[in-house]
């Protein structure tokens, strides 16, 4: 992949007709590296985009799975209700349904926890990347 092509998760930061280099050069502040500042903010925004994308995907997957669980449960209830031979086993069927519901809830909770973990890892990675220049600035060559 060539350097002039953006990655699939990079935002398009180009604005037609606007030259950021000239804009930054015109706003020089003594002792402030404006390009480094802009680069840092771009990385922060890219990290937020990645976090939002991850959160959206996780919640979409969670909602899809919840809908599947609901459909499976409703199909099982309809199938059991139409079977007259189960009249004497209603307590056992209720227990089995409850256990299955608990297992599904546990799976959904684990999915939600994993998505939160992934989001926090993205934020932690960006924080560490942002702190690295400050750590390196204090070291002597």
What does the model show?
The chain is mostly helical and 141 residues long. The protein contains three helices and no strands. It has helices at 20-26, 34-82, 90-137. The radius of gyration is 26 Å and the shape is elongated.
Strand content: under 5%
The total count of helices amounts to 3
Cα shape: elongated
Number of strands: 0
For the biggest sheet, the summary is: none
What gyration radius follows from the Cα positions, in whole Å?
A: 26 Å
**Which ranges are low-confidence, i.e. pLDDT below 50, for 5 or more consecutive residues?**
1-9
Alpha carbon gap, first and last residue: 34 Å
Mean pLDDT equals 75
Instruction: List the helices and strands in order.
Output: HHH
Structural class: mainly alpha
**Helicity range:** over 70%
Compact summary:
The protein is mainly α and 141 residues long.
Q: How do the helices and strands line up, and which of them pair or pack?
A:
Elements: H1 20-26, H2 34-82, H3 90-137
What labels describe this entry?
141 residues; mainly alpha; 3 helices; elongated; disordered N terminus
């Amino acid at each position: 992949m060539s350097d002039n092509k953006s990655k699939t998760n990079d935002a398009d930061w180009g604005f037609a007709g606007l030259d950021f280099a000239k804009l930054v050069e015109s706003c020089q502040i003594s002792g402030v590296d404006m390009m480094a500042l802009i680069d840092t903010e771009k990385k922060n925004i890219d990290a937020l985009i990645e976090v939002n994308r991850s959160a959206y995907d996780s919640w979409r997957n969670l909602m899809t799975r919840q809908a599947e669980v609901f459909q499976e449960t409703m199909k099982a209830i309809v199938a059991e209700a139409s079977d007259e031979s189960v009249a004497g086993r209603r307590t056992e069927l209720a227990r089995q349904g409850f256990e299955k519901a608990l297992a599904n809830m546990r799976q959904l909770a684990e999915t939600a926890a994993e998505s939160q973990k992934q989001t926090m890892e993205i934020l932690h990675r960006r924080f560490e990347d942002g702190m690295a220049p400050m750590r390196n600035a204090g070291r002597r060559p």
